[in-house]
Specification:
Structural class: alpha+beta
Oligomer: single chain
Number of strands: 21
CATH superfamily of the largest domain: von Willebrand factor, type A domain
CATH topology of the largest domain: Rossmann fold
Helix content: 25-40%
Strand content: 25-35%
Shape: elongated
Largest sheet: 7 strands, mixed
Radius of gyration: 32 Å
Number of helices: 12
Number of domains: 3
């Protein structure tokens, strides 16, 4: 839908009228016979505004160009283009109204400038999506002023452009990770890698420097020589990325919710695991299980995991770990590596999580991933300047100790724990995944 608004005054015209009003009052007070000058001046100003707006130029067409897809936390370009029959005499500006998912405040201003094409003006603005989902660009305005800057023409368009906001996959595209995967001995060639893992591959004559624990004493006794077992590196392991979507994961970490930071790290690890011929599934839960996908065993199926991760919603409720992890365990037919992304603020509520994870450890290998609470650490390390700041330091230190206690309880249960700042959590998770794959029997 499109319509033209009447010719409108600019801010300059409003300021000019505001300045002229008290002058007219002074003239009327000093010389009552000259009061006619005020309405005459107002009429002249109105005529100038209308004339200036008419001289602004004729606009042929304009449009808003928005991408269909964006990634949370990544700068996204919104572009406005306008074509004029003649070069506009003054400034050309646009304003956009959109879903706050695209940018805080839900509004952006754009100044248009001449482009390479004759009669074409264009301008752009960068927005940073802060939540996953589908965002609408709802309204757009275009205004261009006359040569005096007193009057302007304006058009408005109601829009329904959809921008799908996906999880951030910039770590997957990082040159460092791609170079590592290119050189790593996983997933690139269908070959057997000996010397690691737990699956027996062959016997070889023992040589100095080999791990003595690999000596096969029965075979050595039969051949009267020392022989060592060579194991094949494990493949086709089942890995479940389990995301807690409750209120503890909705807290902001450097401008984005924890769940979005966790999703980016999880998908990066999933990409690496698929390269290594392991099978990956995604599971999301809050009050109840929300999303569970079939296992994907090929990099070509990575988009299915990405789409499922985009569907993980934000819930300001306590997560039900008992129901969620019991449901997940019932779905798994074989021993799997479960990577659980979660967080906690209340140690009492965390005990329910610890008990549920303890039951899961009996059948599966569990890796608990949490993002370091940098705000608490800053409060603990900040020198107190008064009683209020001292109280904050003591409270923060208590919470840090309680957090460390819960993580230690998980370790005592046999849970592997990864805790790191959000910038490092993805690569810390990948390092731990490789370590588990080299030394643990997942499946």
């Amino acid at each position: 839908m499109r319509w033209s608004l009447p010719l409108v005054p600019t801010a300059r015209a409003a300021w000019l009228a505001a300045i002229a009003a008290p002058v007219a009052l002074v003239i009327g007070a000093v010389s009552p016979g000259a009061w006619l000058a005020a309405p005459i001046a107002a009429v002249l100003l109105l005529a100038l505004i209308i004339l200036d707006a008419m001289l602004a130029g004729k606009m042929a067409d304009w449009q808003v160009v928005a991408p269909q897809d964006a990634e949370v936390g990544e700068p996204t370009e919104l572009r406005v283009e306008a074509r004029f029959a003649n070069a506009p005499a003054g400034r050309v500006e646009a304003a956009l109204q959109f879903d706050p998912r695209l940018s805080e405040g839900g509004r952006a201003d754009v100044t248009l400038a001449p482009s390479h094409h004759a009669g074409m003006l264009a301008g752009k603005t960068l927005v940073s999506p802060n939540r996953r989902g589908t965002a609408l660009i709802e309204q757009a305005w275009l205004r261009w002023t006359g040569p005096l800057g007193l009057g302007a023409r304006q058009q408005s368009r109601a829009r329904s452009d959809e921008v799908r906001i996906w999880p951030d996959l910039s770590p997957v595209r990082a040159p460092e990770l791609q170079m590592f995967l290119r050189d790593a001995q996983i997933g690139l060639l269908a070959r057997r890698i000996r010397g690691e893992g737990t699956q027996f591959e062959a016997l070889s004559e023992y040589e100095p420097g080999m791990d003595r624990r690999r000596i096969d004493w029965k075979a050595s006794a039969r051949h009267t020589k020392l022989y060592a077992r060579e194991n094949e590196s494990e493949r086709n392991n089942q890995i479940v990325l389990a995301f807690d979507c409750g209120q503890s994961m909705c807290e902001l970490v450097d401008g984005l919710p924890r769940i979005d930071r966790a999703v980016s790290a999880g998908l990066t690890c999933a990409y690496v695991a698929l390269k290594g011929n392991d099978r990956v599934s995604l599971f999301g839960f809050a009050e109840r299980p929300e999303v569970i996908t079939p296992f994907v065993g090929d990099v070509r199926g990575f988009s299915r995991l990405q789409a499922a991760a985009a569907g993980l919603d934000y819930h300001n409720v306590e997560s039900n770990f008992t129901l969620a992890l019991a449901t997940l365990s019932s779905k798994l037919q074989r021993r799997s590596l479960i990577v659980l992304f979660s967080d906690f603020a209340d140690p009492t509520a965390a005990q329910m999580m610890v008990e549920s994870i303890g039951r899961l450890v009996k059948k599966h290998l569990v890796l608990f991933v949490t993002i370091t609470d940098s705000e608490l650490e800053e409060l603990v390390s900040a020198p107190p300047s008064d009683l209020a700041s001292l109280a904050r330091n003591v409270t923060a230190d208590t919470l840090v100790r309680q957090r460390a206690t819960v993580l230690e309880q998980l370790r005592q249960l046999g849970v592997d724990v990864v805790e790191a700042p959000w910038e490092e959590i993805g690569y810390a998770l990948i390092d731990r995944y490789f370590d588990i794959r080299r030394h643990e029997a997942i499946g």
